[in-house]
Amino acid sequence: MVQLLLIFLTALIFSILGTPLMRRIAIQVGVVDAPSTRKIHANPVPLLGGAAIYLAFVVALIVLGDQLYIRQLIAILLGASLVSLFGLVDDRWGMNAYLKLGGQLLAGVILILGGTSVRLFGIEWINWAVTLLWVVGITNALNLLDNMDGLSAGIAAVAAAFFLLLATMSGQYLVGPMAAALLGACIGFLRYNLNPATIFMGDTGSLFLGFLLAAIGIKLNFPSNVPWVTWLVPVCVLALPIFDTTLVFISRLRRRLNPLTAAGKDHVSHRLVALGLTRREAVLVCYLIVCACGIVAVYIAQASFPDGYFAAGLLFTAGIVGILWLEYICPAGIIHSDKH
User: Fold this and answer.
1) Which end of the chain has the lower number of beta carbons within 10 A, N or C?
2) Which phi and psi angles does 13 have, rounded to 5°?
3) Phi, psi (5° rounding) for residue 179?
């Protein structure tokens, strides 16, 4: 516990101190999100916040993490560094969406080669395919959620907190340090990213956060439970990003738009604002939803086989009802923008 606390505090401090530094660097080198008629902010906002999150996470984990565990995490760190690098290039010069997707698939392959893969089926190539789908899906889900001040970083922080709790409860000291470092890095960054934000994480940060959460979800396991119930735990923790991505895909496909390249204000957060909430209130509601899903995940981790499936079934049903309500009863049309 002391080690986890030290990792958390180190990441927190490095993030708090490093984010203003990255803000100055971003302004000097021109890595900024310029204002336009299609954006909320009226002044250029630096985009290198993700680099501060990345450095805080890596420093805390390498300096204070158990070296035995660090060696096992090399593949995760390499994959996370790769997607973060692709995000940095996109933030600075722009990058084709399909090229970024290729980078994410390559990072997923690195995970698999490093021994991080789901273990749900008896056929190995199916496990690898599911691993790639999970990694790419969650990586992009966090990227898509980066559409309001404090949203993506806050959701990642709450998810990391629940992963840390679950790891501590089950004595998983491989997952714990990663979750603690990620939690500290995100909270430190939120000091500057909450509305009104003075810096954005950019794709450098959102892709990094998504990849790490996906990897942590794979590493988390509960040997006393059956594999399928175990797999429901990270799915529940990350239920809101999964829900938001599913909603956006359905919405854009219905409008005959490419869900991978089209941009619009059709996310959960945008729809909450359309219902009358302020942006801060919409972000807070999203935090609370992630907390509720995390509580369900903690219950499933300790529940019996039928009880775990029942709880997950209720959450899945709520998700279906939510999509039907938001898309068909209270729809929000696609409003093109430069943000997702």
Assistant:
1) N
2) -65, -45
3) -65, -40
Query: Distance between CA atoms of 20 and 36, rounded to whole angstroms?
Result: 24
Quick: pLDDT tens for 23-59.
999 999 988 887 654 555 557 899 999 999 999 999 9
Q: pLDDT tens digit string along 213-267?
A: 999 999 998 777 767 777 899 999 999 999 999 999 998 888 887 777 677 788 9
Q: What is this structure's pTM?
A: 0.92
Residue 308 class from Cβ within 10 Å (0-12 exposed, 13-18 middle, 19+ buried)? buried
Closest by CA to 49, choosing from 19, 77, 88, 14, is 19
Contacts with 241 (C-beta within 8 Å, 6 or more apart), sequence order: 138, 141, 142, 144, 145, 155, 210
Length of the chain: 340
Regarding predicted confidence, which is higher, 78 or 170?
A: 78
In DSSP terms, which residues pair with 76 in a beta bridge? none
CB-based contact 22:48 (threshold 8 Å)? yes
Q: In angstroms, rounded to a whole number, what is the distance separating the alpha carbons of residues 131 and 120?
A: 10
- The chain-wide mean pLDDT, for the chain, equals 89
Beta bridge partners of 33: 45
C-alpha 159/C-alpha 213 separation (Å) is: 8
Which tokens hold the place of 123?
């056929």
Contact 181, 62 (CB under 8 A): no
Q: Dihedrals φ, ψ of 101, to 5°?
A: -60, -40
Q: Which amino acid is at 89?
A: V
Q: For residues 143 and 311, give the distance between their C-alpha atoms in angstroms, rounded to a whole number.
A: 28
Q: Which residue has the tokens 């971003």?
A: 26
- Mean pLDDT over residues 154-166, rounded? 97
pLDDT, tens only, 194-208: 989 999 999 999 999
Distance from CA of residue 87 to its chain's centroid? Answer: 14
Lowest average pLDDT, out of 117-121, 267-271, 328-332, goes to 328-332
d(CA 95, CA 225): 42
Q: Are 15 and 56 in contact (CB under 8 A)?
A: yes
Helix 202-219 vs helix 151-169: crossing angle, to nearest 10 = 20
